[in-house]
């Protein structure tokens, strides 16, 4: 049918855009990403979000698939993963429910993260870590900048010390229970939603 062919054409076009921006180390992604963000907003009727979710330290396909789905649903501008091979994993695909077809994916290996974070700082992004430290901001009191990069930690080790030094701010989620840690996909989803609530929904209400 016409609608199916239009959808297939749009999907093919978006796949071509994705290919232009990955892997990060072999391209000059900044301009390509900006173009991709605008294309995606125009094609899908979504906000021009400037939230980059960095999941390079996460290695469970289920968490990555869930984050991909959450990032796409709330209109994040890109999801950064440690390897694009995860996309072919059946557990990833089961959780992502095809979100990877509509969300820009950028490959940045853990060893490349320092360089990547520094580059994003020069582009005006605030580097935000989900981490409990003595100077962490409570999520309920933190105001997200428009250009926010969310760095998520590994399932077991969290964010390593060498990357903590590159964060502009740490944000923690207030907790009431005895268990002191949330699943990383859940933590990421809560911050993605809060960014969306502050930056995107507020803007729509003001229009």
From TrEMBL:
It comes from the Eukaryota. It catalyses: guanosine(18) in tRNA + S-adenosyl-L-methionine = 2'-O-methylguanosine(18) in tRNA + S-adenosyl-L-homocysteine + H(+). InterPro entries: Alpha/beta_knot_MTases, SpoU_MeTrfase, TRM3/TARBP1, Trm3/TARBP1_C, tRNA_m1G_MTases_N. It is an enzyme of class 2 (transferase). Pfam families: SpoU_methylase. Signal peptide: none annotated. Its EC number is 2.1.1.34. SUPFAM superfamilies: alpha/beta knot (SSF75217). Keywords: Acetylation, Methyltransferase, RNA-binding, S-adenosyl-L-methionine, Transferase. One of its GO terms (biological process) is tRNA methylation. Residues 51-192 form the tRNA/rRNA methyltransferase SpoU type domain. One of its GO terms (molecular function) is RNA binding. Belongs to the class IV-like SAM-binding methyltransferase superfamily. RNA methyltransferase TrmH family. Monomer and homodimer. S-adenosyl-L-methionine-dependent 2'-O-ribose methyltransferase that catalyzes the formation of 2'-O-methylguanosine at position 18 (Gm18) in a subset of tRNA. Selectively mediates Gm18 methylation of tRNAGln-TTG/CTG and tRNASer-TGA/GCT. Gm18 modification can enhance the stability of modified tRNAs. This is tRNA (guanosine(18)-2'-O)-methyltransferase TARBP1. It comes from Edolisoma coerulescens. The lineage of its organism: Eukaryota, Metazoa, Chordata, Craniata, Vertebrata.
